[in-house]
């Protein structure tokens, strides 16, 4: 069957690729709702390095999506099942102890292979997570929730048990979800948000404290860096200065350029730095379980702005342009 | 009930060759298979009836078997002498099998438009159910001119803002389509190039659905080459 794949050909230019797809022994899904990630925006606006753009484009964007099952020849999902799709495609021979999202030769949809901006998506059944909820719109953000779940679980596995104060640097969507999931998984933790924008910090009503400036004697046990780009350098420096000895730092922000890090103080304090990106099936299952809870879903919905439907290619451009103007996440209905 | 009528009555007179154009191979499958596969994905259809030239009925059934199009909703019936007669044969075939109902809808589609999208099909169904008739169109980028009868001079240059190019699907309340067509005079029938015109002649509103330029009709050798090239574009990265 002919599938339409809406690819970014070069920055701000989208065209349709037609491809005959075979969905025997696979799950055929119609994408329904999507949300835009900064990674998509960087590709769309040509903010990646030229050699990266030349290597990865043309490519369909978007890796945050939920949809509905049209056919499943693997007989795992009844027709009409609402599902979240996992953009990570790991190799079959995963080494023990290695998470699927870090596996060598793992593919990621919308970074190296086509993302979800397609008429139909064909996936193996283990890349599909069902959810039992009629109001499916908010589930498009499951991928980002799962990324936060993955980071928090890695933190729990790797950090020492003194978790009196945990600092989250970054008042964007990742900072929001990491803070929310920290409060959910470790309810006793004292979560402190360090941000830069008063109007965004207002949304973090569930954290225990928040700051824009840090006073000299401010201390915490562990930290999550959720900033990325040039802001990472300043944030990591502050973390190293204010964290207590042997703290764990989870790095989540993507930086296009290499940044300077004060290794002397890392060594002095015996800090542990952990890189955390993307997520795997277990994280998705947890994310979906969390989103099926009304209170959690309502909180997550507060950072999602729904901007109507994409009915033609020109609407895709409108979505990406609009994404630059909203404080958190932009979501939309996919009708193409 | 909601039905699809795939119009495949032609035998390729405009295309040349010894095989109707709907059986030409496009990306390893006959064009007709691509088109039917897309319609079969739409669960709203109670039946999908293909109106094909009687000499090619068995061939079509063989092709469906070969490509595993074994959905029980799929029917094949004989086409008529022209496009509208084929649509009427499709209606007769459906009405002989399913209960007649004032609200039944028929989504008609050219078999040689395999790039139709599910979005276009679903919008057709929704609009035909609500308004009774709709046509899939795209804006005209070129200026359209109307000539005199001798085709030697411009008679009129319509404002391009209000000129659209018709595609398919075209979708109708099935009962009205059948009644209106049977009420037409022989002359009116012989001047019909388009099923929507049946409604227009009768003063009925036909809503517009936005199509896609890629929803092209493969009518000439050039179209076929363009269709093949659509698959070759933006080839996979190494």
Structural commentary:
The complex is a heterodimer of chains A (336) and B (238). Chain A has 336 residues and is of the alpha/beta class. Chain A folds into two domains: 2-130 and 303-334, Medium-chain alcohol dehydrogenases, catalytic domain (Quinone Oxidoreductase, Chain A, domain 1, Alpha-Beta Complex), CATH 3.90.180.10; 146-275, NAD(P)-binding Rossmann-like Domain (Rossmann fold, 3-Layer(aba) Sandwich). Helices cover 29% and strands 27% of the residues of chain A. Chain A has ten helices and 19 strands. In chain A, strand 15, helix 6 (230-242) and strand 16 form a beta-alpha-beta unit. The longest helix of chain A is centred in the middle third of the chain and has 17 residues, at 142-158. Chain A is globular. Chain B is of the alpha/beta class and 238 residues long. Chain B has a single domain (2-228), classed as Spore Coat Polysaccharide Biosynthesis Protein SpsA, Chain A (Alpha-Beta Complex), CATH 3.90.550. Chain B contains eight helices and eleven strands. Chain B has helices spanning 31-40, 57-66, 83-97, 118-131, 174-183, 186-190, 196-201, 221-232, and strands spanning 2-8, 25-26, 29-30, 47-52, 74-78, 105-110, 133-139, 146-147, 154-156, 164-173, 207-210. In chain B, the strands form three sheets. Chain B has a seven-stranded mixed β-sheet, with helices on both faces. A two-stranded antiparallel ribbon of chain B has the order 2-3. At the A-B interface, strand 1 and strand 2 of A face helix 1 of B.
């Amino acid at each position: 069957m002919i599938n339409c794949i809406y690819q970014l050909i070069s920055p701000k230019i989208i065209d349709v690729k037609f491809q005959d797809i075979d969905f025997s022994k696979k799950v055929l899904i119609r994408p329904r709702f999507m949300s835009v990630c900064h990674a998509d925006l960087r590709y769309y606006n040509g903010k990646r390095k030229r050699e990266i753009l030349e290597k990865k484009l043309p490519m369909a964007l978007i890796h945050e999506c939920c949809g509905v099952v049209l056919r499943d020849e693997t007989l795992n999902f009844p027709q009409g099942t609402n599902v979240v799709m996992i953009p990570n495609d790991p190799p079959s021979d995963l080494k023990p102890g290695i998470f699927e999202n870090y596996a060598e030769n793992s593919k990621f949809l919308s970074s190296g292979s086509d993302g979800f901006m397609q008429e139909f998506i064909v996936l193996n059944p283990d890349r599909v997570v069902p959810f039992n909820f009629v109001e499916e719109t908010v589930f498009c953000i499951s991928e980002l929730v799962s990324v936060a779940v993955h980071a928090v679980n890695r933190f729990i596995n790797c950090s020492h048990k003194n978790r009196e104060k945990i600092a989250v640097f970054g008042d964007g969507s990742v900072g929001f979800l990491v803070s929310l999931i920290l409060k959910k998984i470790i309810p006793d933790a004292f979560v402190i948000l360090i941000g830069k924008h008063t109007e965004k910090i207002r949304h973090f009503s569930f954290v225990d404290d928040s700051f824009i400036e840090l006073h000299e004697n401010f201390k915490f046990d562990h930290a999550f860096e959720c900033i990325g780009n040039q802001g990472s350098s300043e944030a990591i420096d502050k973390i190293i200065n204010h964290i207590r000895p042997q703290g764990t730092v989870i790095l989540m922000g993507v930086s296009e350029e290499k940044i300077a890090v004060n290794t002397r103080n890392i060594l002095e304090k015996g800090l542990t730095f952990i890189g955390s990106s993307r997520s795997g099936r277990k994280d998705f299952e947890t994310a979906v379980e969390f989103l099926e809870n009304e209170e959690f879903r309502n909180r997550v919905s507060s950072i999602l702005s729904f901007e109507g439907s994409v009915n033609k290619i020109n609407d895709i451009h409108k979505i990406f342009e609009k994404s630059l103007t909203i404080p958190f996440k932009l979501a939309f209905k996919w009708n193409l | 009930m909601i039905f699809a009528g795939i119009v495949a009555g032609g035998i390729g007179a405009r295309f040349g060759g010894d095989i109707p154009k709907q059986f030409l191979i496009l990306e390893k499958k006959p064009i007709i298979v691509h088109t039917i596969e897309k319609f079969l994905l739409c669960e709203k259809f109670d039946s999908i009836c293909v109106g094909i030239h009687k000499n090619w009925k068995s061939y079509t059934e063989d092709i469906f078997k070969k490509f595993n199009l074994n959905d029980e909703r799929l029917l094949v019936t004989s086409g008529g002498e022209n496009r509208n007669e084929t649509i009427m044969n499709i209606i007769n075939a459906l009405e002989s099998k399913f209960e007649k109902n004032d609200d039944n809808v028929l989504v008609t589609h050219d078999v040689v438009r395999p790039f139709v999208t599910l979005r276009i099909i679903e919008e057709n169904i929704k609009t035909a159910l609500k308004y009774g008739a709709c046509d899939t169109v795209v804006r005209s980028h070129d200026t359209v001119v109307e000539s005199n009868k001798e085709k030697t001079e411009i008679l009129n240059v319509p404002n391009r803002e209000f000129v659209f190019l018709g595609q398919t699907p075209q979708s109708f309340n099935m009962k009205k389509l059948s009644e209106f067509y049977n009420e037409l005079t022989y002359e009116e029938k012989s001047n019909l190039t388009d099923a929507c015109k049946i409604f227009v002649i009768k003063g009925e509103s036909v809503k517009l659905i936005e199509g896609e330029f890629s929803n092209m009709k493969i009518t000439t050798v050039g179209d076929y080459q363009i269709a093949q090239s659509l698959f070759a574009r933006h080839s996979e990265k190494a």
